[in-house]
Amino acid sequence: MPATSELMYSPFSKAVFDDPYPVYRRLRNEAPVYRDPEDRWWVLSRFEDVAGALRDWETYSSKLGPAPENPDDDGRKYSVISMDPPRHDRIRGVLKGFFTPRAVASLEGALQSVVDHHLGRLKRGTTVDAMEAFAFAVPTDVIGDLLGVPQADREQLRVWWEAFLTRHEGEVAMPQSAIEANRNISAYIGDLIDRRRTDPGDDLISIVLQATFHDPEIGDDRSLTPHEVLMFCNLLSAAGSETTQKLISNGLVALHDHPDQWQRIVSDHSVIPAAVNEALRYDTPSHWVARTLTRPVELHGVTMDAGDWVLLLLGSANRDERRYDDPDRFIIERPRGTDVYFGWGIHICLGQWLARREAQMVFEYVAKNFPDYAIGAHERVLTATVRGYTSVEMTLR
After folding, report:
1. Mapping DSSP to helix (H, G, I), strand (E, B) and coil, where does residue 203 land?
2. How confident is the model at residue 213 (pLDDT cuts 50, 70, 90)?
3. Its Gene Ontology molecular function terms (predicted)?
4. How many domains are contained in the chain?
């Protein structure tokens, strides 16, 4: 029997990125508290450990940001995802009510119009790149409408976000192209904000600009500072599109690979919400987030020190055999409990209900109109934290 290869994990390895699940399984079984070979961070991979860390914000702090290659300073780069309470709660609360299930339900007509517009142009018997045909465009237009981004600018903004997230093989540092894309995004969103200051509307940018909240540090109500507004709106422009693009494409590829489950959807559209949840678990769009420790923590006989970075592998936690039966199979009616595909605890994804609804509508449209679709070649580009496709060949039938 050949010797087992040395266990190596890096979030910046293209080989791991393309197929992380065998490495994740080894991490869970052989090194549930894994130390990066260059001593840059720890890695937690089991569901119980990841879920516990996500809930314990006092120990696993977000103040340095969600990614060690570009550390933050209490939200100056990434807004609320790089804050701890109480500041996190005050600023997140500005839009908390806008993304509830009830609020998303009020957008039903607008969401359906976007889906019908993009998928309604597709023809049976043709082969398309699903990403270019609709998986990029639907989430980009939904968040573009909500933020009031002019139609002509949306594709450029999406391209910049893709460039910002793209990483180079084996390199922890952000590439120059990502830094430049970040500058372009901030300049563009900053210009939109300036326009809304003088000409407000009913879009999210205007709502953020006009919102006030009680700040006990000054003992009074206040609005967000210009920098807080910029970072919050930057975050909304990315989070509103990137994860949903990956969810739609990952889900359609996974369902093609599980034809019995896809036929359940074709036969009964009422199972689509459960199928979207399973798509989120089976091939999670956001594969990891990082935290920094505020105190020493001992897990599985290993002590991690205060100040250490810890990567929480959401993608691994969602395939943990200790939590899920037969986790490498896509099972629509899998019993649901706590799941960490949108994170968990105070930082659970603000737009989770919107992302779910967009994906549900796309799956339903495909089930009605292209029930025998086939997937051909599909490619990924190495990106930070999120994992999905950049092209998916799809034959419509």
Report:
1. coil
2. confident
3. heme binding; iron ion binding; monooxygenase activity; oxidoreductase activity, acting on paired donors, with incorporation or reduction of molecular oxygen
4. 1
